[in-house]
């Protein structure tokens, strides 16, 4: 009986510690919001160009930022994008004679990549993620040593390079892209803003998709609770993101428009999430499958 009573006491003590920890974290977050309420990040200033923060809305602004990284322009895929920069190319492809281009977004660690791969197999599509193999080596050997703005421009360039690849692939197969412009921009905004209420106003043009970048037919945003995210992270081998940072990324995602993101509840089983993706895709672009 004494052993049983001891076990009960230890159990309640652990529960008490857990609740105190949650209360402490919530208190710190509240204090942080108060202390930083008068701080500005510069994101609120419409006179400052978004690319100054590493958020790009045109290929020309990307290439201008990278103009001194000469090694990049020796890569055939990059040279092709550079040579075609002044050509008028529709950002929305006609829904005839091609397959679907679908993007899956979400905060790191929620199972987005695994879900994207499985979903691609379910619809007999092709799974893609950035960067393409031709850009991996230069990223490791050169780009990682560059200032933040150059690194951001490189990631933005990847979107334009991979868009050209997608145009070719969708002639014969559906493409499932693991993160695209929305994800890069949400991450950059969260890093700059720090906390949700420092993000730019919801009407800011910073949330608009680039007019010269290939638009997906549909973009899904997989969302999960913090507890679920922390539970899944050990499977990815990546560090957990803080609640404040993940909340800021999530809010940035929800503020994006043209095209909007379709939220998928990721708190359920993977099978339920995949079923939702299938049903939604059949409803929105069955003609492209």
From TrEMBL:
Coiled coil feature spans: none
Domain of life: Eukaryota
Gene Ontology MF terms in the entry: ATP binding; dTMP kinase activity; nucleoside diphosphate kinase activity
UniProtKB keywords: ATP-binding, Nucleotide-binding
Biological processes annotated in GO: dTDP biosynthetic process; dTTP biosynthetic process; dUDP biosynthetic process
A GO cellular component entry from the record: mitochondrion
Protein name: Thymidylate kinase-like domain-containing protein
Matching InterPro entries: P-loop_NTPase (IPR027417)
């Amino acid at each position: 009986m004494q052993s049983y009573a001891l076990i009960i006491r230890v159990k309640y003590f652990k529960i008490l510690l857990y609740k105190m920890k949650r209360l402490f974290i919530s208190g710190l977050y509240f204090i942080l919001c108060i202390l930083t309420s008068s701080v500005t990040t510069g994101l609120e200033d419409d006179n400052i160009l978004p690319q100054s923060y590493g958020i790009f809305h045109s290929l020309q602004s990307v290439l201008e930022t990278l103009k001194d990284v000469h090694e990049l322009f020796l890569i055939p895929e990059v040279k092709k994008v550079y040579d075609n920069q002044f050509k008028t190319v529709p950002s929305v492809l006609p829904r005839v004679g091609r397959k679907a281009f679908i993007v899956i977004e979400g905060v790191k660690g929620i199972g987005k990549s695994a879900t994207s791969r499985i979903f691609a197999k379910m619809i007999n599509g092709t799974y893609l993620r950035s960067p393409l193999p031709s850009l991996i080596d230069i990223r490791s050997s050169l780009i990682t040593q560059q200032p933040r703005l150059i690194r951001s421009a490189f990631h933005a360039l990847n979107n334009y390079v991979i868009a050209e690849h997608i145009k070719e692939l969708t002639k014969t197969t559906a493409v499932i892209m693991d993160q695209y412009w929305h994800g890069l921009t949400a991450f950059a905004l969260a890093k700059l803003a720090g906390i949700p209420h420092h993000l730019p106003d919801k009407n800011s043009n910073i949330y608009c998709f680039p007019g010269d970048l290939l638009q997906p037919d549909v973009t899904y945003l997989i969302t999960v609770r913090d507890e679920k995210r922390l539970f899944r992270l050990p499977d990815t081998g990546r560090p957990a993101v803080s609640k404040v940072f993940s909340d800021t990324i999530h809010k940035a995602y929800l503020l994006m428009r043209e095209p909007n993101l379709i939220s998928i509840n990721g708190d359920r089983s993977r099978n339920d999430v995949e079923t939702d993706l299938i049903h939604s895709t059949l409803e929105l672009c069955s003609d492209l499958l």
